[in-house]
Amino acid sequence: MRLTIFHKLFISLMFISLIMMAGMALLINNSFQNGLQSYLNQSEIEKIETLAERISDYYSAQKGWKGIQGEPKLWAQLLQNIGEHPSPSKNHPERKNYKPSFNRLEARLNLLNKSGKSIIGNPKNLRRLHNNIQITKIPVINNNRTVGWLSVIQRESIKGRLAERFLRQQLDNFYWIAAWAALFSFIVAALLVRHFLKPLKNLDSAAKSLSNGNFDYQIDVRGKDELAELSIAFNLLTTTLKTQKHSREQWLSDISHELRTPIAVLLSEIEAIEDGIRKPEPKYISSLHDQVMTLTRLVDDLYSLSLSDSGVLIDTTHKVDITNIISNITNQNEVRLADKHIAIERLYDNNQCSLLHADAKSIAQLIGNLFENSYRYTNPNGQIHINLQQTPDCIVLTIEDSAPGVPDDALPKLFDRLYRVDKSRSRANGGSGLGLSICENIVKMHHGDISAQHSKLGGLKITISLPIKDN
């Protein structure tokens, strides 16, 4: 049989409740018996103290104990005065074969003289018979001196039909109360466990719904306990998965669209050559080559993006000089910049050394992508400014260019994959829409920050902050 969490919690609560009630029953039973016996013994002591006062008066009147030994009626009268019922007199018809019960005070009471010798009562009472019996002596005081003792033997446990019946009645009442308490605990435990497990059932339903592809399921969060935090985390997970699903679908749609255009051009050009509409002249071969290169760049960017996503590009065990990387990239593109009449200006000391723990290849790709982005989307006769600043904790790299600029609503989307401000123009410039996404991944892998703003030159400004030490 499979035990659910409900059964386990319910059994645990009931087991603890039953153990506690059983322990309480034992403690209450023991405490009640001891308390009742102590009360009965103390009641007897109070009676005997009253008896001692009256015997003291008799002692004063008789000048000693001789008179009381031969006066059983007087002893019986004294016992009656404290509420006891002594045994019948010698001439009474019930006196024959009469043995007072040991539970009665008369059978356990002795009057002793000053030296402790028994005057009235059974001398055997002066010996402690067993561990369950204790002997208590009450002094008889006359003229501020002890003239005798009243000795009584008392039990440490309850004896006697009346006391036992009273005890049994009270215990029966307690057992009934305990039974009702157990039933009440049973019901309350079931309700509490059901209430506490309700969030888990909601989580179970949500998990099953999520496994079936329903990303719109949200758990109604109540309270501030751990289960509420778990429900909030699950809702966040559902929202994240829904966003990722949408991004994945959009990503596949965008990739399909990006691949469809060059493939369609390639197919139409090849079919035209095959059908004899066009001859395999150099200009048509060059067009085919351009489309193949577009596909190649797109595939290379996709591959680089997948590598940056997985983090395999990172190797921060060596120091990298960013100044040197920037110089190499600008030197490699001098001819291209001159052809487009774009002036590049470095707003820092070219001889300064800016070292940080980073992966050399990925940093070179980062700066190369940013430079390529500025080159492609800067109008002829434009400008590119590169600035490099160093603080004790990080290096801040800024690359900004001149017109054309970027609309305000496009700035937050520049790092989205395959996003282009002007798709037709971007595709014509050879851009895949993945360059800035790759840059963002590389910066994040180095625990840095990257942002886009409007440039004072009229174009786009990209700011990157990279920590000097590897985190």
Automatic annotation (TrEMBL):
Where does the HAMP domain start and stop, copy by copy? Answer: 194-246
Q: Which GO terms describe its molecular function?
A: ATP binding; phosphorelay sensor kinase activity
**InterPro entries per the record?**
HAMP_dom, HATPase_C_sf, HATPase_dom, His_kinase_dom, HisK_dim/P_dom, HisK_dim/P_sf, HssS/ArlS-like, Sig_transdc_His_kin-like_C
**Which stretches are transmembrane?**
9-28, 174-193
Keyword Nucleotide-binding in annotation: yes
What SUPFAM superfamilies does the annotation carry? ATPase domain of HSP90 chaperone/DNA topoisomerase II/histidine kinase, HAMP domain-like, Homodimeric domain of signal transducing histidine kinase
One Pfam family name from the record? HATPase_c
One Gene Ontology cellular component annotation held by this UniProt entry: plasma membrane
Which chemical reaction does it catalyze?
ATP + protein L-histidine = ADP + protein N-phospho-L-histidine
- Kindly state which keywords UniProt assigns to this record, in alphabetical order: ATP-binding, Cell membrane, Kinase, Membrane, Nucleotide-binding, Phosphoprotein, Transferase, Transmembrane, Transmembrane helix, Two-component regulatory system
Q: Which CDD domains match?
A: HAMP, HisKA
Q: Which PANTHER family match?
A: SENSOR HISTIDINE KINASE CPXA
Query: Under what name is this protein listed?
Result: histidine kinase
